[in-house]
Amino acid sequence: MYLTPQHILLAGATGLTGEHLLDRLLAEPTVQRVLAPTRRPLAEHAHLENPVGPLLPLLADLQGPVDIAFSCLGTTIKQAGSQEAFRQVDHDLIVAYAQRALELGARHFLLISAIDADPQSSVFYNRVKGETEEALRAQGWPQLTIARPSLLLGDRVEARLAERIAGPLSKLIPGKYHGIEALQLARALWRLALEEQDGVRVVESDELRRLGK
């Protein structure tokens, strides 16, 4: 069964994937309102509501109704400055945001996680991603979609040296470890948002690439 969501909540709209997803949402004739809190103002649009400031203090002021919520939030340990600061964004902030979306009436939450996310992983990054997935499962969402992309490809405002080096190589790797364009991921997320099914769905990177074509 396919849905026609009208009221969307989007966090991370200024990020690599979030920018593409926001453009897609605002171009959809069925979407009446996109609520997208950001640290810096977005370009005005008739269907865009854009509270500006750090997300955590804004959560209590966000107003519904909300049909579907997307999380394109994420950072790196280098950008965050420490493992603790990374966890505050990629776990604590996402979990608090999801809880607020649930309170506003959202029935479907779509998360950009990461390939190899696992709460038991010995790799800190993968472990935090897995713990975030686990926490969202515990919130009891009617529908939870977890997207696990491999290396994201695209032009970032702040270039990441490691990604510039690994990006071309990731295109040579087969299967789910093959790099994925941020635009493809945004397209896949929207397609997944339109599908109605109960429970949790985990979508690996190779399927995301297929959905995003």
TrEMBL record:
Coiled-coil ranges per UniProt: none
CDD domains linked: CC3_like_SDR_a
Gene3D superfamilies attached to this UniProt entry: NAD(P)-binding Rossmann-like Domain
Domain of life: Bacteria
Name of the protein in its database record: Nucleoside-diphosphate sugar epimerase
Organism: Pseudomonas rhizosphaerae
